[in-house]
Each structure stands twice: as C-alpha cells, then as structure tokens.
Write a structure and sequence with these properties.
The structure is a homodimer. Chain A has about 290 residues and is of the alpha/beta class. Helices cover about 50% and strands about 10% of the residues of chain A. In chain A, helix 1 (about 25-40) packs across helix 8 (about 200-210), helix 2 (about 60-70) packs across helix 8 and helix 6 crosses helix 9.
C-alpha cells in the first residue's frame, strides 16, 4: 500500500479517512488533526499558557509531545494518585519525559493532600473512577488557576469522547450531555478546559506514540477493571469498522445539531464551596468533604 | 428453571425482566406489556375502531392476534407490494389468519395502484426500504381515514424502535428524533398512529407467535438485504446481553428526558398535496409524484 500523500510505502492505513500514510506523512496528519481540532473551537493560541494534565499513559503523553512540537507554551501537571506501584511508575515516566524535553512539570501528591485514592475508595465505597475523576478535576482546576494558566488541557481522544457520549445517550442523561464538548469555557470559578485530540482515535494516538518512540506507562490502573466505557468503545469500534467515519460524525453532528438545543436548557451551578471556593452543589466541595473524613 | 409467577416448569427466560415463565404466564406477561404500553401513552380504548397494518410477518400478526384476544375492535390492512412470490405468499398468510379469526381484512394492491415496489425502485433508483416505507405510510393513512378508523396501529417492537432511535442518534437527526415515539397524534390530515408493542422485544414477539401457533411468513423481503437497522439491532442486543434492561431504558429515558426538549423545537408541516391532500413538503406528495412517472 502506498502513502496517500507522498506515494512512498505506507506504514498505517486509516479507513475512516480513506487514507494510508508513511511515517512522516502520518505525523503531519496527526498534527493537522490537532490544529484543526483547536481551530474549530478557537481553543487557544500560541500566546496562551497551557497546562496539560498527564497521567503517564499514551494519550496524554502523545498530546504533550505534539503540543511541544507544534510550538505551544505548555507545562505538564501530574497527579500522583497514591496507588502503590502504579502511581510511582507513572510519575517516573512523566518526569523522564519532562526532563528529556526540558519542559516544566507540576506535581500534586494525593498522599500529601491526605486523600490517596485507595484510602478514599475504602472510606467512601464510591465507584473508584467516579471519585478519582472528581478529585483530579479539582486539582487540575486549582493548579491551573493558582499558576495563572489560561487553559487546562486533557488528552481525551475520539474514542473517549464518543464512548462517553454513547453512555450518556443510552440513558439520556441531559445534564451530562450538556457538558459534552471539546471546549468548556471559563465560568463559575472554573478554568477553561480543552481537549485538542477530540478528532483523533485511540489507534491513531497509539501509532503516534509508537512512531515518536514515546516511553509511556503501559500498565493500566488496578481500579479501572471492568469499566463500562471500554464496552462501549468496543461496540463503537465494531460500528466504525462496518461504516468508517461513524464515530467522528456521531460526535460532530452532536455539536452541530443537538448541543445548541441543549445549551438553551442549561442550568448553571451557583454555589461555591465555603472552604475553598470551588463550584459545588452543596455547602462544601467533594475534596474538602473527603479531607474531613 | 421455574416460572417466576406460578412455579411450574418455565419455558422461556427473560433476563431484562429478571424473570422466567411457563407458557400460560408468558402469554399473560405479553398481554400485560401491551396493555401497559397502550395505557402509558393513552393510545386508544375498546370503543375505538382500530386498523392494524399487517405484513404477514411475525410482529404484525402477533399484534393483531393479541389485540383480538384483548377484546379490541380491530380490522387488518394488508398492502400487497407487488413483489413477486413474496407479496402473494404474505397475502395468503394474512387472508388465512383473518378468515380463521372471522375478522375483516382490507387490502391495497400496489400493482392496481400502478406503483408496485419493484417498478418504483427501478424507475426512481431510491433506497427500496425508504420509498416503500413512504408508500405504505401513505396508504395506511388513506385507508384509515377513508374507512373512518380512529387509530392506525403498527407492529413495531422494542428492537425496531431502539435500532431506529440508535440510528437517528448516531447522526443526530433532530427532525427524525422529534417523531420517535410510540404514539403520534392525529394532526395535519394524518390519522393517529400507535405502536402498542413498543415494550416487547423481537424475541418476545417470536415466542408469542410460536406459543400461539400463528402461521406467519418467515421469508424476508428480497429488497431488505443489508439494511443497516439489523446491524444496530445486533449491537444493541450485545449491549442488552451485557447489561439487561438497557434497551427499554434507552427508549423510555428518551421520552422522559429528551423528547420534551425536542418537541418545543418542532416545526410542523403545513403544505398539503395539490392532488390528494396528503401532508407534504412540496406541491405534490410522493405517491402522487410516483403515479405520474
């Protein structure tokens, strides 16, 4: 198979784009998709100070690498979740990457904060991924605001986004659907949040990490076993295989056709945590409540 | 396995209802689901004159049988599509059923109308299922109104409804989503339309037809090969298998959470066909245009 762009031998085929690429043209393609994703939502510019949340996994590491290559002003943020072996191995990978690139890395240690995930899960008996997500979002926002950053960036890809959209659609959770888009504006004490990789699939991100020889953590979180999102990813991939292009159309037509209708109906949170000022539904935010347990 | 209701030996297991039934209790369950589906939308009462569209397949035949058993005042409507062998075989099954039950059957013959499906498909090169659906809906409405019926009934089951909802959701087709519900009111020259089997799956309908020894047409339409809805049915069944109850929740939470928002946005058709008066977007309706070809 030949590269669609330069006619050299292709190394990767992308059915949903009806294309095949050699290594160099794939990297070009990857950067172009990120740039397109950024421009489509006017996410940020090269003047902005970006903070990218990195877990040590392939998606966030690939994104951090790509943003550096594209010339953005970007620092990393790693949250050590306090999960034995897993979290320390992840921190090592992230630190090694940052020093090899000479970029700044910010670190939050949940053990030092008094709320390591295993302890939180034991005490609250909540679904690990749900409570962990809440805690991470809290620190993403806090570090971003305290550090004077303009945008908080996450490495969510098209598979993450469509599987979440699919899950929220299967049960028509309107309040979640209303927030499902690659750019959330700065409002109510929340920093602007952007997902510049929303046009790229998990497969494409893995290919990028492989071609760029990014040394990421392959281990998956011990708490994430049996997460329902992976089911939905599987089904969406099967549909994509039968009808290439379905995933991106599912996501894009959602913004275009559905989101404007839902946004009219959106009710905004007005409460702020009495302790730390973070927007919340109750008197205290989740993190402040957890710290008091 | 024992019957959940009477503790006799069960003949069928229904995971989404967390139940198993013997033959008699399954029939009770089936009738209860239809009655519940009718009541939930106030579809019709025993005083109304019902016209059920029957294709000769298991779903519409099962529904006709069940409505008779439940004591509704119901006549059948069969549309002979003019598809060699298939249509005549279907007509035979429907006629035999009607005469065995002593109920009235209305028949429309598309050959006599000058628009048999194979000819229409050849002339227009349109997707067969799409154009056939339009023609059928036209005659369902016409026969219903001309005959003074109160409601037109179709045998769509939960799998039909959820696969259609899924398809419209994958591409966020708002104007189709707005019409996706088990009861469409009488408006704009259209007869009230109801789908009383929306709570029952294809599997449950097949079991009913089997238990009731209904002699239906097993052949499938030669034009329906590769229809995308069957793909979506497959995926939804796989999801249902992993999480029983997902299909009915997908459909019910849609009415409850999403439809009220969409209905506010609904734009109603105001044009009527200059020739026959049927609501249409253009000057002439599809059927009148086809007859002129």
């Amino acid at each position: 198979m030949k590269c669609t762009r330069c006619k050299k031998e292709a190394e990767v085929e992308l059915k949903s784009h009806n294309a095949a690429f050699c290594r160099d043209c794939f990297l070009e393609f990857f950067y172009r998709q990120i740039t397109k994703g950024i421009k489509q939502f006017k996410m940020f510019s090269k003047k902005d100070r970006l903070l990218v949340a990195v877990s040590g996994g392939k998606d966030s590491m690939a994104l951090w690498d790509a943003l550096i290559e594209l010339g953005y002003n970007v620092e990393g943020l790693f949250i050590n979740l306090g999960i034995d072996k897993f979290s320390d191995a992840a921190e090592e990978k992230v630190k090694a990457f940052a020093s090899s690139k000479g970029v700044k890395l910010n670190i939050v240690d949940l053990k030092k904060e008094g709320i390591p995930i295993p302890e939180v899960v034991k005490k609250t008996r909540k679904v690990p991924c749900a409570i962990c997500g809440q805690i991470k979002r809290y620190y993403f926002n806090k570090v971003g605001l305290d550090g004077g950053f303009d945008v908080l960036i996450t490495g969510h890809n098209l598979d993450d986004e469509t599987s979440r959209l699919f899950s929220n659609t299967l049960h028509w959770k309107i309040e979640y659907l209303q927030d499902q888009k690659p750019l959330l504006p700065s409002e109510n004490g929340l920093l602007r949040k952007a997902k510049p990789m929303w046009r790229l699939t998990e497969f494409e991100t893995a290919v990028y990490a492989f071609f760029r020889k990014i040394d990421y953590l392959e281990m998956s979180c011990p708490f994430s076993k049996g997460a329902t999102f992976s089911q939905y990813k599987r089904h969406l991939n099967a549909i994509e295989y039968e009808s290439p292009g379905t995933k991106i159309d599912f996501y894009q037509s959602f913004f275009k056709n559905m989101l404007p209708i839902l946004e009219e109906k959106r009710e905004k949170v007005v409460n702020f945590c009495k302790n730390c000022g973070y927007p919340t539904f109750g008197e205290l935010c989740t993190v402040c409540r957890l710290k008091m347990l």
